[in-house]
Write a structure and sequence with these properties.
By secondary structure, the chain is an all-alpha fold. The protein has helices at about 1-40, 50-65, 70-90, 95-135, 140-145, 150-185, 195-205, 205-235, 240-270. It has one domain (about 30-270).
């Protein structure tokens, strides 16, 4: 009798633990599934028409173009401070060139892409999350399906494409600004340092390193759009769940960005 009670307790415990695990990982599975569908849809010729191009253009405008000036200024100030600290400290030990290589690796390859992704996540990720959650709560997505409109192709994928392109473009701009500041900090406005600086850039940005950088930026771009959309689609059809959906999506997004960055560091340096 005692053995039967123990077995029932153990079965109940395992069942409850299994239900908890399923409930916890089901959103992740749905998010990965949606991410795969979105990635496949991006390369589908059926996606691209005047309506979807308009949504993509608006997404890029609100996500990247409107903040280009202010974000570039912030990135320039951050780059200037970090480069000056590294170069000034290294010059005291006669290691100016080595410091420049190290700071470019840290700044351009690691820090600026992550800062860009976080900036886009705060500006557009939360807005996309709230918008999709409200569309889902108000049954607008179902209404589109009822009249034969593919919401995935018309509403979701253009936002994914716009977000990815915005992250890539902003990262490219601020990386170029950081490299320009690095050159001026080390060599001034003279052109005599171009050969040495080009050699340093060649050591830092090997073809494999550049490929890894853009793959990481691509994953950042997918994360800041796919995760908010997936979280918005999970919102129950009650208005007070909208803020909860946004909070949940942003927490998942933060951990996803950190996981991508940690994985990149591990692959690169371990």
């Amino acid at each position: 009798m005692h053995y039967d009670r123990s077995m029932r307790w153990l079965i109940k415990l395992l069942t409850r633990s299994g239900d908890i695990l399923i409930a916890r990982f089901s959103p992740m599975a749905r998010m990965l599934s949606f991410g795969g569908i979105a990635l496949a849809g991006i390369f589908s010729p059926r996606l691209y028409n005047s309506a979807t191009r308009t949504v993509v253009e608006k997404q890029i405008y609100f996500t990247a173009w409107q903040i280009l000036g202010s974000f570039s200024l912030f990135a320039a100030l951050l780059s200037l401070i970090l480069i000056q600290i590294a170069v000034t400290a290294a010059r005291n030990y006669g290691l100016g060139d080595l410091a420049l290589e190290v700071v470019l690796r840290f700044l351009v390859i690691e820090l600026l892409p992550l800062v860009t992704a976080l900036f886009v996540a705060l500006r557009s990720g939360a807005a996309i999350n709230a918008e999709i959650a409200l569309m889902n709560i108000n049954n607008e997505i179902q209404a589109l399906a009822d009249v034969g409109v593919d919401a995935l192709r018309l509403e979701f994928l253009p936002r994914v494409i716009g977000g990815v392109l915005s992250v890539l473009a902003l990262t490219a701009v601020v990386s170029l600004i950081a490299m320009l500041i690095a050159y001026v900090s080390l060599y001034g406005l003279e052109t005599s340092g171009l050969a040495a600086f080009s050699q340093i850039l060649g050591q830092v940005f090997s073809p494999l390193q550049v490929l890894g950088l853009w793959l990481k930026c691509l994953m950042f771009g997918l994360a800041v759009t796919v995760i908010p959309i997936a979280a918005g689609l999970e919102a129950p059809h009650k208005l007070f769940f909208a803020p909860i959906a946004v909070h949940t999506g942003m927490v998942r997004l933060f951990f996803a960005l950190m996981l991508i960055e940690v994985g990149s560091l591990a692959i690169t340096y371990l």
